[in-house]
Amino acid sequence: MAKFLLSLHVLVSVLFIGPVAVAVSMFPARARAALAGGPDLAPETGSVRLLHRITQVYAGLGIAVPVLGIGTAQVMDVLGQSWLIVSMVLTALAALSLLLFVLPAQQAAVDALGLADPQAPEHAKAVQGLRLLPMTAGVFNLLWAVVVVLMVIRPGSTTGA
After folding, report:
1. How many CB atoms within 10 Å of residue 37?
2. Global confidence as pTM
């Protein structure tokens, strides 16, 4: 059962977190170009909306990753180990950065794309929000990279692997 759950956990991690990581990374440049280009950049506008939708949908599906991870850890009897606790804290921080910073900034940019007046305050606010988005996207992806490393290396693990 442990091998099945672990395999499912890894598969879900790759399939659900991977697209979010890529979409979050691609979004700022596409949004900046679309907001600067005005209405003649319809393809950019479409890609910005698509990247935001991917981020939203796969973030929701990504809830399965920690759920399966906790189930796997229970079966493997490693819930109290420090590497796993640190991984869970980092996962929670990644989720919070996505919910509190990345998704609201993306939504503001998508909302600004629909404005007829590029001088509107909402447009300026969206452009301002894009300044920090590459950094928050990088932090989000870095947190996941550290979690993956901890899952592979498992420092101090007593499971023998």
Report:
1. 14
2. 0.87
